[in-house]
Amino acid sequence: MKLRRAPCLVVVLVAGLESAPSHACPGMVLPPFTLDLGQTWSESGSTSATGSVLLIGLNRATLDPRPVDFDVGLGYVRWSVAGNDADTGTTAARSTVTPSIADAQGGYLELAARVQESSHVRSWLAVRGELLDVDGAAVGVAARVSTELWTGTNARNGMVAIGSLAIGLYAEVGLREGGDGRDEVRTFTLGISVRSPFVLIGGGPARPPAAPNSQ
C-alpha cells in the first residue's frame, strides 16, 4: 500500500517565566521529556496497514544525569493508520467488518532495563503496557530493544540544564486487543527516540543602568 500521508508531530514545550518586579529579565524553561516517533507495519487476520506511532512522556533516565540500571516512564501514545484505509481481502469485507487496524490513543507505562553501556552509548530492553481508546476500550503491549547516544548534564552556570540528552534508534513488536468484535492487531515498529533534560535559560534581575558621569 502506498503511503499517502506521513503524520509528523513536533512538540515544543516552552513557557515564559514571569517575575513580579518590572525590572526583572524574562527567562525560558524547557520541561524534560522523552519523544518517540516510529513507522509501523500492522497486521490483523487478512488485513494489513502501515502508519506511524507517537509517544511523548517522562522517564527516570531522562531526569537523571547519571547512568541508571533501570528506567520507568509514563506518557501519551497515539497510533495512526496511513490514510486510515487498511487493505482488506475483499470489498465485502470492507463494508461489513469493523476494521481492526484503526487509529488509537491513550496512556502508557514503560519499564526498561539497561543491557549495555560504554562511554556515551547505552542499550535497553523494555516492555510497555497501553490503555487505549479505539472507538471503545482497548489494551496493548509491546517489547522494545533500543540503542542511544547520550550524555548527562548538570550545568548551573548561566544556563541550568539537569538530566540526560540523548538520541537513539529502536525496534519493537507489539500486540493490541480491543472489544467490539475487533481482532488482535500485531505491530512491528522502527523509530527514533529523543531525550531532553530540564533546561532553564536566563531570568533574574536586570543590571541597573550605569550612572551618568558627574561633571
What does this protein structure show overall?
- The protein has a single domain (27-205), classed as Porin (Beta Barrel).
- It is elongated and about 55 Å long.
- It is mostly beta strands and 215 residues long.
- Residues 1-24 and 85-98 have low confidence and may be disordered.
- Strands 3-4-5-6-7-8-9-10 form an eight-stranded antiparallel barrel.
- The chain has helices at residues 60-63, 91-96, and strands spanning 15-17, 24-30, 33-44, 47-59, 70-81, 104-118, 121-133, 137-157, 159-178, 185-196, 198-205.
- The chain contains two helices and eleven strands.
End-to-end CA span: 82 Å
Number of strands: 11
The biggest sheet amounts to: 8 strands, antiparallel, barrel
Second CATH tier, the architecture: Beta Barrel
CATH topology: Porin
Features:
Porin; elongated; disordered N terminus; 215 residues; mainly beta; eight-stranded antiparallel barrel
Summary of the model, kept short:
With 215 residues, the chain is mostly beta strands. Helix content is 5%, strand content 63%. It has helices spanning 60-63, 91-96, and strands at residues 15-17, 24-30, 33-44, 47-59, 70-81, 104-118, 121-133, 137-157, 159-178, 185-196, 198-205.
